[in-house]
Structure formats: C-alpha cells, structure tokens
Specification:
Residues 1-65 are annotated as: Disordered. The protein is an all-alpha fold and 86 residues long. It folds into 2 domains: 8-44, no CATH class; 46-86, no CATH class. It contains 4 helices and no strands.
C-alpha cells in the first residue's frame, strides 16, 4: 500500500477496482459502456469540438512520427484498398 496506516492511494484503489471490474465483465460490457459514453459525448458537443480535438490529435501525431511512418501507413492503406477492390 502506498500510504501508511493501512491506507492506499487513490491511484492504487482505482487500479485495484479496475482489475476487479475486468474480472467480472466481458468484452460486451466495455463495448456497451463505450457506446453509451460516445453517444452522450456526441449529444453534449458540437462539430467544432470534434474539429478541435482532431486538429490537436493530428498535430501531436505529426510531432511524434517522421516521414517514414507516414510513407508506411500510406503504403499499407494502398495495399488494403487494392486488396478490397479485387
């Protein structure tokens, strides 16, 4: 336990709770709560919200990866597209 006197940290309690939940629920449970969360988010946010988070995500990705990364994913995308058209 992270803290003295038998108390655990909030982080440790969350981790242990997450582990217990994952043992009690299957893939469908997580799909359902993800679906509900996505629907709630879409009701509470407008088009500009999604544009802004997409912009930020794209900028973060471009800072993290180099040209070779984009070449590789472009090549894989082209191959997948060609395979689907056959």
């Amino acid at each position: 336990m992270a803290r003295g006197k038998g108390k655990m940290s909030r982080e440790e309690a969350g981790r242990l709770g997450g582990q217990a939940t994952s043992k009690n629920h299957g893939k469908e449970f997580y799909q359902e709560i993800g679906q509900k969360g996505g629907e709630a988010t879409s009701r509470n946010h407008d088009k500009e919200f999604y544009q802004e988070i997409g912009q930020k995500g794209g900028e973060a990705t471009s800072e993290k990866y180099d040209k070779e990364f984009y070449r590789e994913i472009g090549r894989k995308g082209g191959e997948a597209r060609n395979n689907n058209n056959e």
